[in-house]
Amino acid sequence: DISLNGDEELWFSNNGYTKLPLDLNKEAGGNDVFLWYKTGDYRAITRIQFSFNDWMKKGLMNEGYHLVNKDLHNGAGGSNVSLWFFKGYTECDVPIVELDLSTNEADDTKKVQPQWERSACDLNRGAGGDWIHLWMKRQHQTYICDIQASDGDISNHELLRQGYTRIDEDINRDSGGPDIFIFYQQTTDEKKAITDLKISTDTKESRLVKAGYQKVKTNLNDGTRGTPLYLWYKKDETNKPPITFITVVNMMAKEEYVKAGFNVIDTDLNLKNSGHKM
């Protein structure tokens, strides 16, 4: 849940909630906003998503997600970012047992540990404050077993229904094209895991086909004048560890991730268009 004032903070504290001490409006102005969570053995939360436009809200509501009906930018302006959660029971649904927040790329790289994953949505999106990202720890280690991309609200809803997690950042942000999101599906079975990801332009596709990679059909630059870009994945790279974690980062954060030893696909997702560099 979210607290917007001292009275709400006191209530959460008295009722067994854990407070994340970072103000979600840090350096953005507005009221103090804090995230709280509570642990227990009954009906754990298994997925957390964010919305920042009306069709994202509609899709999450239609698929049974619960809205925390409070503005994360209370008094600060910016995108209308809302927090949603889901309690599921499929193979894709592993309980979330702990939450944390990061405020910069160096902080990000320190938090990448087994069982943890990062939301790509900047909780200060459009508000001008510090970058703030939510981190979630799973009860058990999960692996990425499928990846998709979607350029329409209908297919977005269908993927949520099938247990996919959406990377909550529009790949076409500020490019003039349609909203495009990457989705991934998780499993606890390491044998089903994806072991390598690539992004291609047209000139590289034949090599990837010969190497046994599978193509994700959606053009990540669809509707723009940019270079067509496609995701490719492979599951049988025995010399590579299973992928446990996928996110999208701002181009300014790339160097910090590379220095920390992470596998970063060095391709601007808005290649040769005017969109947000990531």
Automatic annotation (TrEMBL):
InterPro entries: MABP. It comes from Xiphophorus maculatus (Southern platyfish). This is Si:dkey-30j10.5. GO terms for cellular component: cytoplasm. Coiled coil: none annotated. Residues 1-41, 141-278 form the MABP domain.
